[in-house]
Every structure is written in structure tokens, then in C-alpha cells.
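Page 42, continued from yesterday. The earlier attempt failed because a stray header line got pasted into the input along with the sequence. Redoing it now with the clean sequence only.
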Amino acid sequence: MTVHFYFARKFLWILMGITIGLFTLISLVDLMEQLRRFDVEKVGFDTVLQLTLLRAPEGIYELLPLIVILATVTLFINLSRTSELVVVRASGRSAIVSVISPIIVALLLGLVAIGSLNPIVAATSALYGTKSEKLLASGRSALSLDGEGIWMRQGSADGQAVIHAARTNADATLFQNVSIVAYTPGIGPVRRIEALSAKLIDGAWELTAAKEWPLEPGLNAEANAITHDLLILESSLTPDRIRDRFGNPSAISIWDLPKFITELQISGFSARRHLVWLHMELAQPLFLVAMVMIASAFTMRHTRFGNTGTAVLVTILIGFSLYFVRNFAQILGENGQIPVLLAAWAPPVASILLASGILLHMEDG
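This time it went through. C-alpha cells are written below.
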């Protein structure tokens, strides 16, 4: 048991060191990008630094499999150079026993990642998007979703408009039971429109069976209401923007994702992309375990046998290949070409089986 705690502690320290190093590198690279994107003289360097730090957790979260591979390679190369693996073998145990501790740490890391780091990344990504949008363009369109339907806001130089729809189609081009309230800066709400349906065309809303009420003070709204068989209103929204807003599951905490999927389905959107993402997040611990097993299979040999550089290179290439296969399966799942569960769970399970075979062959023949 003492050996397991010793290996686990070393692996954890290496993980922390690599994470801090990559966090610093990602922050510096992204800082250059933010300095190019924003005018420092207007927004201030502290604001640019804040935006950089808000984006850094997302980068670390995406590189988690790479961090685990690098940490495992570093651990076992160090153990081989110090002959600690030789001591484990001399004690009558298989060196595979030394892999158990990193596997458990990787499994726990995956559970912590999806339970704690995922909500943090979702929150920082959403905050970054809000702050950057305010700095780049005021009055930009906004969208939200709840159990009552879809809420949208569009802005222009003439004012704002809040739009509510009970339901839409999968392409976000046709909306049912639409209500629009238009606002003018410094005045407030100026008119209200309700329509049976609304079609989003290039740069405009095409409202069918619409009724318009003026909201001017002292004016009888119902007496001055106007009915339109077809009403055209300018719009800054586009179907692509609406789909992109609801199509990025990484910006939603995994704890809120099941509810959001239900709301998407009720509102008429396709939730397949979010379902694939949810199951892939749940399968993340297994994929990290596979990365540990792959890395250990090629780096547990003693350094006196040579070819250490080749072993590290092969490990990195196999890790990237499995990561590519996982992402490819995700795309197939999102497109509906393979079932959701197969897209999310097959790559990590297959990776573990492959790594087990390689590890047993390399270590015990």
C-alpha cells in the first residue's frame, strides 16, 4: 500500500507541474491574441488580462488527455532512471502493479474534471463571451432558453426588441406564437406585436397574422391596434447565430445540461449534439485511464535498454491517434451516422482494451 501511495503522490505532483506550465503557456499565447483583438488604450491592460484568465481554463480542460499522457511518460521515465521499477520487480511483483496508482489518480481526476472543472469552464467561458461582446459591440443580439420557450433580443441604432417564441423548427427559421416588444432608447417600450408565426429571412422577420399595439403614453392601445396579414420587420438575427448560440454544449455546465436538453427538445431544436457531448463528458474518466495505460506500456522499460525517445514519440502519436478517433466518433454521433452511446463510449472502452493488450504484451509477454 505504501508503494501505491508513493507512486500516486509522485504522479499527482507531476500532473500539477505540467498543468501549471501549460496554463502559463496558454495564458501567454492567448494574451497576445487578446492584445491584438482589443485596443489596450481604451479597455485597459487589466481588462485584457482578465479576459485572458477567463479563457485559460477552457484551454486546460481541452488539453487534459495530453496532460495525463505527459505526466505518465514523465513518471515512468523517472522511475526507470532511478531503478525504482527494478526494485518493484525484485520484490516479486509485476511492474504492472505500479500502474494501478496512476490509473486511480487519473480516474479520480476525470471525475473531478466533469464534476467541478466542467462547471468552472462553462462559467468562465460564458463570462468571457459576455465581457468580450460588450467590449466589441454594444447592443448585440442575445438569446436564452427556458421552459416557456425561446427568448431573443436584437439591437440596432434605433433601439432594442425583445422577442419571445413558444417553439421553432430545427433550422431556427420558423417560429410559432411570437411576441415582440420594441424599445426606444430614453423612452421605453413603444409597440407590441403578436403573430401566429414568424419566418426569419435575410435581415428581417416575416410575421404572419400579426397584430400591432402602440404603447405610447395616454394612447388607447387596443383602439389603435392594427392587424396585418403579413408584416416585415428588420432583424439583426440570423438562423446561424441562433443555432450557434444553442449549439455549443461546452458553454453549459454538465449539471444543467440534462435540463437544457429537455428544453431544447420542447422548443423544437435538435438536442443530439448536446446528448453526445453529455455522454462524452461522462466517459472522460475512462479515456484518461486509457491514456495512462498507453503511456505506461511504452515507458516502463529500464532506460538502459535504450530507445527511450522512440518510446515517448510512439506514446504521443498513439495518444493523439486515439484522441482523433474520439473526436471523429463525436462528429459521426452529432451527424446522426452512429448512435449517441456508441459515439461517446466506444472510443474510451476500445482504448482501454487496446492499452491493456499492449501493456500485458510489453510487460509480461
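Notes: The mean pLDDT is 82.
Reminder to self: strip header lines before submitting.
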